[in-house]
Amino acid sequence: MFEDRDRYAVLDALRAALGRRILAYCLLDERLDVIAEGPEAELRVCMDRALRRYLRKRRRRAAHGESGFPVRVEVVRVPDALGLALAINEVHELPLSYGWN
């Protein structure tokens, strides 16, 4: 389970790594989905760097062990504008599917 300050720290790390390239995101206790613009390889490196930066800060701050937060980064290419719109909609609906309504 994350505290609010952990959620803000993850979002700050993502903003620092991706900036205005973030189109949508959903941060739940067990997963993080981000839709961002850019080349796949670059996005993978930026996401990996951002999440590792967050985990290092969390461990230092609270002397936590390994976080339950997923660190695996998966990059999926969206083929066209319709696919992008559907992906953004899916990410925005994630909290509802986890019962956060």
Précis, in short:
The chain is mainly alpha-helical and 101 residues long. Helices cover 54% and strands 11% of the residues.
Based on secondary structure, the structural category is: mainly alpha
Distance between the termini: 18 Å
Tally of separate helices: 3
Spans of at least 5 consecutive residues with low confidence: none
Helix/strand order, N-terminal first? HEEHH
- Arrangement of strands in the largest sheet: 1-2
Molecular shape: globular
Description:
The protein has one domain (4-97). It has helices at 4-18, 40-62, 81-97; strands at residues 22-27, 32-36. The protein starts with a helix and ends with a helix. It is built from three helices and two strands; from the N terminus they run H-E-E-H-H. Strand 1 and strand 2 (32-36) form a beta hairpin. With 101 residues, the protein is mainly alpha-helical. Helix 1 runs antiparallel to helix 2. Strands 1-2 form a two-stranded antiparallel sheet.
